[in-house]
Design a protein that fits this description.
The chain contains 38 helices and 38 strands. The protein has 1065 residues and is of the alpha/beta class. Helix 20 packs across helix 30.
Length: 1065
Amino acid sequence: MGKRTDLQSILIIGAGPIVIGQACEFDYSGVQACKALREEGYRVILVNSNPATIMTDPELADSTYIEPINWKSLKKIIAIEKPDAILPTMGGQTGLNAALDLDKHGVLKEFNVELIGATKEAIDKAEDREKFAKAIDKIGLNTPKAGLAHNLEEAKNILAEVGFPCIIRPNFTMGGTGSGIAYNIDEFEYICERGLDLSPTTELYIDQYLTGWKEYEMEVVRDKADNCIIICSIENFDPMGVHTGDSITVAPAQTLTDKEYQHMRDASMAILREIGVETGGSNVQFAINPTNGEMVVIEMNPRVSRSSALASKATGFPIAKIAAKLAVGFTLDELENDISEDGIPASFEPTIDYVVTKIPRFNFEKFSGATHTLTSQMKSVGEVMAIGSTFKESFQKAIRGLEIDKNGLDPFDRSLKKSELRAGIISPTPERIYYLGEALRQDYSLDDLHKMSGIDPWFLNELKEIVEFESEIKKNNFLKNKDIFLKAKKMGFSDKRISSLISSSEDEVRSFRKKLGINPVFKRVDTCAAEFRTTTAYMYSTYQDECESNPTKKKKVMVLGGGPNRIGQGIEFDYCCVHAAQALRENGFETIMVNCNPETVSTDYDTSDRLYFEPITLEDVLEIIEIENPDGLIIQYGGQTPLKLANDLERFNVPIFGTSPDQIDLSEDRARFLEFVENNNLTQPPNGMASNKEEAIDIGNKIGYPIVVRPSYVLGGRAMEIVYGADDLKIYLTEAFQVNDSNPVLLDKFLDIAIEFDVEAISDGEDILICGILQHIEQAGVHSGDSACSIPPYNISESAIQNIRVEVTKVIENMDIIGLVNVQLAYVDEKIYLLEVNPRASRTIPFVSKALGMPLAKIAARVMAGISLKDQGVTKVPELDFFSVKEAVMPFDRFQDVDPILGPEMRSTGEVMGIGKTFVEAFEKAEIAAGVNIPKSGSAFISVRDTDKDFLEDIAKDLTSAGFSIVGTKGTIRKLNELGYEARQINKVLEGRPHIIDLMKNNEISLVINTTEGRESIKDSASIRRTALDEKICCTTTIQGAVAICKVITNELDWSVQKLQDIHI
């Protein structure tokens, strides 16, 4: 059939910012699609708002637009680029919804643009649950008893048919957004009202909740010639009720009989044919009643999905690449499988001879008040994947890859009451597997555990065998018994887990293991269970006989990745790791990537020369080093994950490229850093270091409140807090952080009205290149990862910028830094204060790279490998004649009852970028891309703390000139009246009715400006911020954010779009 020749240019829609339910798996799929289509000679236009992606690197597409993903923005791009077709299936739900909007507003028809990969009809049929149910019924398959509602009255009518419990799912949303399980009428009405609000089409699908049923997924690929293959079957460890993104999943499915598997396989293919998915990958979800084998179809995604990325990494089959080529007319038998040799076609269904386990990563600790219970609405922020010869091995490898201080089914460090243990087993939470482990140690029967948890007895028995073997390990002479030791390793027990069971050290266990000659081998992922040859070095460790690694003698570098995404350490670090591999491969190194995150570009089979899909732990990394013997490691690009290994790696004489572990420790260890600051006459806010509560309170009283309290060795501002008095500090030291000699805290005077800056630089030991000075839009007190920022600075004097350069240069000159360095500063009262130094990749590197048109991570990687800035011809950065603004994207909508206030602990999951000729244009585009709807008229509610009242005049001037009326609380209104502005006073929530919440719920407020301080005041005003979020009212919790929003409101010029390739000529 061959590729289509009537198409010359194709627009790919990206997924936008990383959010819960839609993470960096779509960067992976977008990168594959770009490469695949350009390989076939098509001109590729890419649109995405997320700068922290490889897909937005200018060399990936012919035209790259970092712009908001909505139909208006896309229309402007289509008018310029005039693509022949749009491929929306690589951009998750965002891409599909944007494509449907383009069709709805007549843009596709106006510009004669075709949708490829999935037709509008197929998308509608799959995403509209009523149409989907009818399609499934037509082919003789079953769906749960259900109905479609457009309002609460219709929903109640369906409830009468379906009954309790029921599951409510809004149409056309992702990650289970707005869905929930209702057991009573109050829950039902609440979930329905919220779901109707969140559905783009104001539609709810209400179906029977299949309590205790088992859930499965099939990854399917089909072409226009009706060739259809199953890439992978995936089984959920948890029963129905937990979103598949939050469930532990296993591939291939472990508990299906062959007959059940074949039935499900046939059903998947029949569904794709009926829905009309002719080209590409789809994901079909099923539920099976464990008591009688009845099967129902839950849903399907007519696009590449989160599970597609997992299936690709699990099997080695490049789903997104193949799907992109199928979309332009190829058939599966015309395409070759890249991983296998001998010309094996892509129509050859993958086979695997190992077990893959995925475990999600959660960050509930970041959201005070959030329930840990897992439901049909996804809450995980990342995931880890592990490969082993058995489920036990891959399961235990996955646990240690999570980086949550667990090395297996670790016991609790306290005794559990029977009621707590039962509750931990019954309620699905991230901790449930550890409660199951504890119950098995107490000899609970598998039958009882199955009844309580709904988890299949096969999985429970696997956990039981792991727990039972712990007793074998605890027996005398374990370290000298080769047979038992080897069996433990085959079951996935790490050296560290073994050491805790026998009260030894990890080093001692490793030493005995080496003496016994017990070493892992490395097997290859090849899509065909070793039936055909492969030259692709995609490997995993296991304890078998034959090693397939076949290392070379080439000059090589190993890059340690960042492990699972989590808040504070996300896609930005993977971006840097990929750039390191790309740069050093270009410079003649064989590149080796080590990572365990299935969502990422770094774990794509063709990103590096050799890929090891392994946990980033000392044991696992040392085993790879032992077999590969690299010339050096890059540990500074993967966030805290590899940095935590720095001192141990140095202890094992592992060569590390770039900044030394000692200099990294200097910056991370708060006590050493304080000494460095004093010795080099650098300026810091008044501060002190405390190792106990009494010291901390003494220091607080000495330097004066408010103060910022921060622990050592954390990323994303973990456990950082601003405290406003001694009582607040005592609460912090009791509840938030246990301070002691090994966990000291730094107490800094809080520079309340300071402007913060991030400075990115590269040092090669001789020359220092200051790459970017980023001005935070929110003032001090908001974590840099959560603050919007601008490059270049937008309202600061040239002399202040010059002083920042001088201070940063002074810092770097007094440290031994080779590679990237991030310096954070505060500017107040004409003084510059040093806050911290990070001699590693920071999360703003991708953003600054896109703003400058310079691949900073690549340049720095070459520096770390010994190629100086001069030798690279990099001596200066370009002068910018435009502004770039980064805005953070928050997940507060996923966590009911959480206060959506910004503070020193990072809580954003992703970011977007706006580019404009002026700061206001760039800021407005960034806000739109982040999903913020800035109103142009209406009524503004203003309630600000005393220190922010100096800004009220500018804010009121902008709002009144735009026609806004102003409502406020007593103190703010008094100040506005003094300034000559009319404003209406409204009660605070605790002052009686009607109060501000009433106005917000009555749609009388379109903008909320609410700044506050102090634990009690923040608590009292939390309902205002939460209501703004729930009612979709534009809300800012910082005064500088309010100033910037008001400038957008008064800006009447429409914004333009421009591709990166033209901006950086």
